Amino acid sequence: MIITVKKEQIIDGLQKAASIIPSKAGAAYLRSIWLQAAGSGETGRLTLMATDVNIEFTGTYPAEVREEGQAGVNGRAFVELLRRLPGGDIQLRLDKESNTLLVEQGRRSYKLPAADPVWFQALPPFPEEGAVLWAGDFFQDIIDRVSFCISDDDSTEALSCICLKSVEPGKVDVCGLNGHQFAMVRFLNDELAAKLPADGLLLQKKYVNELRKWLGTDEVMLNISERRFHLRTGSGSETLSLPRSGFIYPDHLSFLSRLQAADASTLKLRRKECQESLDRLHIFNNESDRCTYFQFSPTEVTMSAQGQETGSATENLDVSFSGSLERIAFPTRNLIDILGHFQSGELTFTLTGAEGPCGISGTEDPDYTVLIMPMKIAETSYYEE
Predict the structure, then answer these.
(1) Where along the chain do its domains lie?
(2) pTM higher than 0.70, yes or no?
(3) Domain 132-179+187-250: which CATH number of 2.130.10.10, 1.10.1740.10, 3.10.150.10, 3.40.50.2000
(4) Which of 365, 187, 351 is nearest to 271 (CA)?
(5) With 32 labelled, which of 39, 74, 322, 358 sits at a CA distance of 20 to 30 A?
(6) Digits of tens for pLDDT over the chain (385 positions)?
(7) Element containing residue 271 per DSSP (H, E)
(8) How would DSSP label each residue in 314-369?
(9) Span 255-372 CATH architecture
(10) What residues form DSSP beta bridges with 327?
(11) CATH superfamily of 2-119
């Protein structure tokens, strides 16, 4: 294998490949990035392949190929070297006698041990039939709005997954749930809704994080096989494949329906004003009391926090409130995080009870709903007038 590539054309793909491969664990061939040179002249190309057994990445980039071939090389070392080289042409040459990959640029020369080619296995191509076109930046935005509610603990099974599910003809719900918070984005896409399995498509959060880094502003092609979720850039230069999870996702529509209860209370407030108040009240939280308490009246809410070692604080906000609920407590840090995912100037809280789910929505965030579970109020007062 003898090829010349431009650093600027391959470095982004190399960094995506390096982020997938394990740094220390696993067999040496899994820590390798596999290089495959094919074609010649203007049709020459370099294909990069990397996998950690679960995630599979393939990227194809232009190259000047003098001799076809393939080589595996320690992925992180190879990428770090190329990342630190200046821009321009880089020659890659496999020395079969010494089983090393020579990296040359001008008066610079480096030798990297090559992996045993017996371990090389070509990754499956992207399944073309029935693929769906989708906007990469829209998918990325949905992940941002939902993934903060997904559990980081793999042992929680379905709660450690993002779920894409068709709920009505042409409508798709994307959900994240960790047991005390839930986020959902609903959108219209006839093709994707028809493609999704009846039980939904579940992807573990650790894989979704890699997917989010891979996605960009360009369109992507999506497809679903029995065991995997496949993606390809619109140009066809890169593919990513993730394993599907076989867990059963909770029926999110059942607890969303609780927001329709006739006795639910409604609170409307200004988002930024509430965020700023919560940020100040958070100073007065501690490990034993992580809450902000809300006391309601028709035109005002009194927000308070207290801690035995931190003191106490009270702030009043002008709001619009209707219902019979008198008091509720929310974990302050969680509520701040939730409000930060909205764009709306005014938010509506649908309160189903002092210990029931609270739904949050905004007019400028259509089809986006977040649920948070309140905390049980402990009647403890450390500071009194």
Answers:
(1) 2-119, 132-179+187-250, 255-372
(2) yes
(3) 3.10.150.10
(4) 365
(5) 39
(6) 999 999 999 999 999 999 998 876 566 677 899 999 999 877 899 999 999 889 999 999 999 999 999 999 999 999 999 999 999 999 999 998 999 999 999 999 999 999 887 788 889 999 999 999 999 999 999 999 999 999 999 999 999 999 999 998 999 999 999 989 999 999 999 999 999 999 999 999 999 999 999 998 889 999 999 999 999 998 899 999 999 999 999 999 998 999 999 999 999 999 999 999 999 999 999 888 899 999 999 999 999 999 888 899 999 999 999 999 999 999 999 999 999 999 999 999 999 999 999 999 999 999 999 999 999 886 554 444 3
(7) helix 271-281
(8) EEEEE-EEESS--EEEEEHHHHHHHHTT---SEEEEEE--TTS-EEEEETTSTTEE
(9) Roll (3.10)
(10) 295
(11) DNA Polymerase III, subunit A, domain 2 (3.10.150.10)
Q: Tokens at residue 174, please?
A: 């994307």
